[in-house]
Amino acid sequence: MQDEKRKTVPGPQGNPQRPLAPAAFALEETYRATRLPVDQASTLIPDAYTSSEFHALELERVFARSWVPVCVTDEVAEPGRYVVVEVAGRSLIVCRNREGELRAHHNVCRHRGTRLCEAETGTVERFFQCPYHAWAYDLDGVLLGTPLFTLEAGIPVDQEDAFDISGVRSFDKADYGLHPVRVESWGCLVFVCLDDEVSPLSEELGDLPERLAGYRLAEQRLLRRVEYEIAANWKLVGENFMEYYHLPWVHPGLVRVSPLKAHHRWQGTGMYIGFCTSLIAANTDDGGWQGLPALSTLDEDDASSARFAWLFPNVALNALPNHTFLMLTRPTAAGWTKEVTYLLSHPESIAGAGESIEEEAAALLAFWDEVNREDIAIVERVQQGVIDPAYTGGRMCYRFEEPVHRFQNMVIDRMLGLRRVPAGDALQQQPMFPVVG
Predict the structure, then answer these.
(1) Is the peptide bond before 293 cis (omega within 30 degrees of 0)?
(2) What is the mean predicted confidence (pLDDT) over 79-97?
(3) Environment class of residue 400 by beta-carbon count within 10 Å: exposed (0-12), middle (13-18) or buried (19+)?
(4) What is the CATH number of the domain that holds 295?
């Protein structure tokens, strides 16, 4: 009891003390300080980043009830190509059927529950087969075969008596297909949703597809894929992405091509957090975003800007005139995240690079990797700090952390079972540092 008392510390600005009882995570009062306007608000409760109980509830209320990005379209481009992903503790198979349509299924055999696919990616010609009793399912999840289960399944004639089921209740394979999962795509991303009651993906995307239409994301091809393990909560990774406050101290190379004075809010209606750099600065000795030719179909504003969006719940989309960089965060524990990054570009830009495409792609990836590793190092230090009982939450910086405030309130909504799509700004684009005089 004495140890527990030492860990209990009062929170600022009306934040509750920590640690909290798990039941508090579903109560509006718990988040009162973060619900205030951004210039008065305090950050999300520390337990949201450190508590295994919060993490478990978050998986069910955020990830099991949202459209969750799981891969890029190029990873499941051909019929029979599949990826295995985990969403809210469920293993899922995402694939293309023989007609080229996206399908998603729970990775569980309907006989005894065996996991069908162990590899994270692969290709099957016609069907998925259970390694336990060889039940087979086609790419649409239909049960095709149950060897030695019924007489019509190819049992040798001299053994039919042993498998006579004439006195047994009939078995219909049509009743035992794989459990389906909702799946949709937008641009170069594939999404799944475990909840049949959730609105279509288009409602959560809001105006983002229209705002990014000029980048032709659906036509972009995968150039590189890199994975990272991060000793920090997935929300810390996202919040770090969406605020500018840390840039001068953490990213000395990045601020040369993405100057603070060029940052703008770029927030429309939808389940996303949007901002941009306009104009992009030229590459420096530390690298940059230029190199590949820009898309010729972009308008003047898009052709000179970098558009950034954190699409709720867990993917960062960086749309540049000549390439796209995605950061997909997958929570694996309260304080651990697996991040998968993707470098993509449009065929026009790829063709325009000619024989130098590999060199240009490597240079872009090296720049993104350096920035990403700088971010990983700092968010891991943040995770170490929020674990400390001395930290009970802090005040928002109104100028730089409004995007974080928007995101944290999206999380709170889902934790409380609220479904609403936040509105955007009245102006298409607002400078973070207004010109005075």
Answers:
(1) no
(2) 98
(3) middle
(4) 3.90.380.10
- Asked whether residue 79 falls in the same domain as residue 160, the answer is yes
Beta bridge pairs of residue 319: 307, 324
**Which amino acid would we find at residue 401?**
E
Number of domains in the chain: 2
Note down the domain range covering 240: 216-431
Q: Looking at the structure, do residues 322 and 390 belong to the same domain, yes or no?
A: yes
Which of 166, 182, 198 is the last residue in one of the domains?
182
**pLDDT 10s digits, 310-325:** 999 999 999 999 999 9
Q: Judge whether 269 and 433 are in contact, CB under 8 Å.
A: no
Q: Looking at residue 121, which CATH number applies to its domain?
A: 2.102.10.10
Cα three-residue angle 51-87-96, rounded to 5 degrees: 170
Listed residue (235, 175, 292) closest to 43, CA to CA: 235
Domain membership of residue 49 (yes or no) is: no
Please state the pTM of the whole predicted model: 0.89
* Secondary structure element (H or E) that encloses residue 310, with its range: strand 305-311
Task: Examine residue 190 and state whether it is found in any structural domain, yes or no.
Answer: no
**Same domain assignment for residues 153 and 268:** no
Do the beta carbons of residue 120 and residue 94 sit within 8 Å? no
Tokens of 300: 């003047």
For the record, the structure tokens of 397 come out as 């910086």
Instruction: Identify the CA nearest to 324 among candidates 307, 304, 310, 336.
Output: 307
pLDDT tens digits along 39-57? 999 999 999 999 999 999 9
Q: Which tokens go with 81?
A: 């190509």
